[in-house]
Amino acid sequence: MEIRYSRFLLKITTLTLILTGQAAWSETPSLDQIQEVEAVIQPEVARVEFDESKIDVGDFEIVPAVGILSIEDFSSNVVINTKFNYHMSEDVFIGFELGRSKGGKSTFEVMVPGSNFLSDEQRVLTYYLFNIGYNMLPGEAYLTDKVTYNNALYLTGGMGSVEFAGDTRLAVTVGVGYRLMMFNLSSLYVEMRDHTFNLDVTGVSKLTNNFEMTLGYSFYF
User: Which CATH number is 60-220's, of 3.10.20.30, 3.40.50.300, 2.102.10.10, 2.40.160.20?
Assistant: First the structure.
């Protein structure tokens, strides 16, 4: 009698557990239900209003500059040049350049007073160059937390002619520069270059290195 009663209680307990499990399974939300709930609940993100910089820059620019040109054997003097550039893309630009300086006395002329190799007119140096540049490291310069300027470190190379000491010579130029866009239509330039050309003032032709450093300010149009 006790055995039958125990079996009856075991069957009732098993049936109860089965029914409870089915009810719990039926109450578990499906994947579609979860997605519907997530679609209803949207995060509240505050929208920040800001003014986007509008840089209206033309493809052409003119760059007047002034600096120092060290003419090998003829001291360092003021140089003035003007570039006319065309920006083919964001990275590459080409242009023409006209520059003018004047050589001082050579080392020999300083050591031997009265020995003048060149006249005042022959000491004037003028160069005409075709240049190509590549913006190597474009980026932004942060003056303050709220003031930024576009800038770029660029490489430049050129070829043309140099008139000096009564003759015209082929010149090759290489250099590096830094450009800082101050306003929408203007930029500040700092540039260092080396002009190489043959010079035979003393009767012996040699390849000279003539270093130049200039500060310029460009205007786009």
Answer: 2.40.160.20
**Helix/strand/coil percentages in the chain, nearest 5:** 20, 50, 30
Q: Where are the domains of the chain?
A: 2-40, 60-220
Query: 148 forms bridges with which residues in the sheet?
Result: 142
| Each residue's pLDDT tens digit, 135-165 | 998 778 777 777 778 899 999 999 999 999 8
**Tokens describing residue 72:** 């090998």
- The two three-digit tokens of residue 7, written as one number: 């079996």
Q: Give tens-digit pLDDT for 21-61.
A: 554 445 555 555 555 555 555 556 666 554 444 445 568 99
Give the amino acid at 158: G
Please give the model's pTM, rounded to 2 decimal places: 0.71
